[in-house]
Design a protein that fits this description.
Blueprint: E1 2-4, E2 12-14, E3 19-21, H1 31-34, E4 38-47, E5 53-56, E6 60-68, E7 70-75, E8 78-82, E9 87-90, E10 96-101, E11 106-114
Antiparallel strand pairs: 1-9, 2-3, 4-11, 5-10, 6-9, 6-11, 7-8, 7-10
Length: about 130
Amino acid sequence: MDVRSIVDREPEVEHNGTVPVWYLVHPRELKELTDGGFVELINEFEVAAGGAVFPHSHPTHEWYLVMSGRGVMTVDEEERPVGPGDLVYIPPDQVHSLRPVGGGAIHCFCFAVGVKGAAVVDYKTH
């Protein structure tokens, strides 16, 4: 499972030396992986304490950025604890789920790149 955090990164200085940037994904790092794809969705979601994003899959490259709360992310049967600032990569067609831990909700920003030629996904049932 690919989980990245700025805690593990040194900033790079950009914009003529005026802005520190903590890259979780460098420019063009994902070009080959997502070539021919398209932006499928961008959203924020929250899983309440006691709830879960139930196991599911779809034909997208998907990233969850944990904004607040703590949880356990499962991708293809591998479990990892996640918390604020963690960026989780979920490859296409891999079964994944998320559950909050610690008694509170977990709030995430999500974006996905669809795989070229993929069928339409009904996210209300996935």
